[in-house]
């Protein structure tokens, strides 16, 4: 199975993430979902980490 590269983050999502991290923006629940989905879609590891 070939590995796919993650899609680049859109300018809109990057700006939102920057504002949230800087404390300038209080995200709505929909924006939180967008940020979480973007982060998860760019995670290149499969499944969960093994428990220690």
Architecture overview:
Helix content is 48%, strand content 0%. It is mostly helical and 52 residues long. The longest helix has 13 residues, at 29-41. The chain is extended, with a radius of gyration of 14 Å. The protein starts with 10 loop residues before the first helix and ends in an 11-residue tail after the last helix. The relative contact order is 0.17.
Give me some keywords for this one.
single chain; mainly alpha
How would you sum up this structure in a few lines?
With 52 residues, this protein is an all-alpha fold. It is built from 2 helices and no strands.
Secondary-structure map with pairings?
Blueprint (H helix, E strand, L loop, with lengths): L10 H12 L6 H13 L11
Order of helices and strands: HH
Helix content: 40-55%
Low-confidence stretches: none
Oligomer: single chain
């Amino acid at each position: 199975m070939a590995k796919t590269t993650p899609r680049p983050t859109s300018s809109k999502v990057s700006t939102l993430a920057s504002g949230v991290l800087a404390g300038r923006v209080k995200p709505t629940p929909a924006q939180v979902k967008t940020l979480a989905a973007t982060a998860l879609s760019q995670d290149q590891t499969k499944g969960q980490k093994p428990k220690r």
